[in-house]
Amino acid sequence: RLTLDGYISGPIQDISKISARLRITGSDLSVQGQRIGDLSADISMKNAVIHIDPATVANGESNLTVSGTIDPFTGQGFELRQAPGFDLDIRGEPIRLEDFVEDFSGRLQIQGRVGGTLNHLDGALAVSGESIDVGVQTIESLRVDARLAGQRIYFDPAIVALTESGRIRAEGWVSLEQDYRIDVTSDGIDLR
């Protein structure tokens, strides 16, 4: 169930002079049977820029928060940019997988800032986790440090520990243009 509350005011012919505020709250949300949890978002618009202060998803012990700005308009009325600009802070501390998917378990933390446009990214994300079980393989721990620059997402590095002594390390990049280069190395991993 979602609840919306807000206002909009200003001259319709000049979007830069429109002021708006929207408060969105929702509880026990799900999509196609997958739990999302509770949503709380404060969104406003001033000078044709959308401000998110913040948007939070809470489910069980998990919290994911996004705040920042989105710049979707060209300045020509309500015409939208081909590649809207954005500057978002993302924080997920902690995220328990079992809060969202019944058969999964483990804890993740996400921290970072993502900005630029979808065509020219800028920012960094750090994802770490422990005791992750998604039904195929149990992962003791993981750490991914990603840097976003232009059309590429760089991994500096990504480390997945299947056991305390068996680690896989990946460094490289993935492009938004669907090419990639990833170098993978590992410790001796006991497959017994």
**Major sheet: arrangement of strands:** 1-2-3-4-5-6-7-8-9-10-11-12
Summarize the helix and strand pattern as letters: EEEEEEEEEEEE
Task: Calculate Rg over CA atoms.
Answer: 20 Å
Give the helix/strand class: mainly beta
Helix count equals 0
Total number of beta strands: 12
Q: Name the poorly predicted regions.
A: none
Give a quick account of the main beta sheet: strands, pairing sense, barrel closure.
12 strands, antiparallel
What does the average pLDDT come to? 92
Task: Give the arrangement of secondary structure elements.
Elements: E1 2-9, E2 19-31, E3 34-46, E4 49-59, E5 62-73, E6 80-96, E7 105-116, E8 121-133, E9 138-150, E10 152-161, E11 167-175, E12 180-186
Antiparallel strand pairs: 1-2, 2-3, 3-4, 4-5, 5-6, 6-7, 7-8, 8-9, 9-10, 10-11, 11-12
Keywords:
0% helix, twelve-stranded antiparallel β-sheet, 12 strands, 192 residues, mainly beta
Structure in words:
- This protein starts with a strand and ends in a 6-residue tail after the last strand.
- The mean pLDDT is 92.
- The protein is flat, with a radius of gyration of 20 Å.
- It has strands at 2-9, 19-31, 34-46, 49-59, 62-73, 80-96, 105-116, 121-133, 138-150, 152-161, 167-175, 180-186.
- It has a twelve-stranded antiparallel beta sheet, with no helix packed on it.
- The chain has 192 residues and is mainly beta.
